[in-house]
Predict the 3D structure of the following.
Amino acid sequence: MTRGPADSDAEDVSGDLARELAQAIELEQFFLVYQPTIDLQTNAFAGVEALIRWHHPRRGVLGPDNFIDELEESGQIMPVGRWALNTACAQGAAWHDRGYRFSVSVNVSERQFESSAFFQDVADALWSSRFDSSLLVLEFAQATLRGDRETTAPRLELLRTLGVRFSIDDFEPGETALEELGQLPIDIVKLDREFIAGLSASSEASSLVHRLVESSETRHLQVIAAGIEDSGQREQLQNEKVHVGQGYLFSRPHEAEEIDRFLEDFAIFSGKPL
């Protein structure tokens, strides 16, 4: 096939990005921010989700949508994912040393999960940080856990021996998805932010949330709603007995130092335990 100018340009851009990402690892340009989660029923602080950012030398701070796909395709997601896991566990342990006891969630890519090195990466991160494994939550995309069940289930069970918990990220509770929940050894279901955005306008969506919460009670699952942006969404989710909320209504993602201040303010103004 003959390459046209557009193909060449796209290839150049991709190549530049791959080289920049390789340099970003060496120059330590990646950093983590943390977004709080709040118990919707008690208003207690529930935990944080660790999210990666790239301090690009020319373009400023970039979110993962700008580079995660390239990290996956190039295989660089492995060292970056390992760094993120180690950093999040170390930060979680630092918070716990100060008396805060809450969960820390870390996103896991499909390539990481399928790697034979991933179990050891998690074990090493927990050992080196002395982070309580029961408070580490590994978040997987639905597609990752919908893979070959004969290999997915044993990987999860092996990771389970470390004492960690599992979450399905960006969950959309359709009929098939609800049926699949019983087939996966997970602990947490995080509702997709786009699903939450359309919740108030859809009686069908409300019914699905109601069924999900009912199902979670029999399976001992925690339900988290992501992307809560207004008090109306919060009230509706509270009424449906959704357990935990996350979104700009509560807090944007912040670096660890700002989370420290958030924790102090939260304890003062909410009167709730951390």
Summary: Confidence is low (pLDDT under 50) at residues 1-13. The CA atoms of residues 13 and 19 lie 10 Å apart. The beta strands are 30-39, 45-56, 60-62, 103-108, 136-141, 165-171, 188-191, 222-225, 244-245.
